[in-house]
Amino acid sequence: DVSNSYRQTFDRTLTSRSVHELARRCSEKIAVRTLFGAVSGAGSGAGNV
User: What is the pTM of this model?
Assistant: First the structure.
């Protein structure tokens, strides 16, 4: 069935896209957290000196 195979392809594309979006958000969160950690670490280090 053509429509069925089309739907499967569409579902697969949609799923991979949402997974990609989720991964991108996670990597952004990690990057922000790392950045904040580095900034706060540098700030506390400068404060200790």
Answer: 0.53
For 49, half-sphere exposure in the C-beta direction (CA atoms, 13 angstrom radius) is: 5
Going by C-alpha positions, the residue among 28, 32, 36, 29 that lies closest to residue 44 is 36
Helices (H), 1-49: 2-48
Structure tokens at 11: 């579902």
Q: What is the pLDDT of residues 1-49, one digit of tens each?
A: 788 888 888 888 888 889 999 999 999 999 999 999 998 888 777 666 5
The domain locations on the chain are 16-40
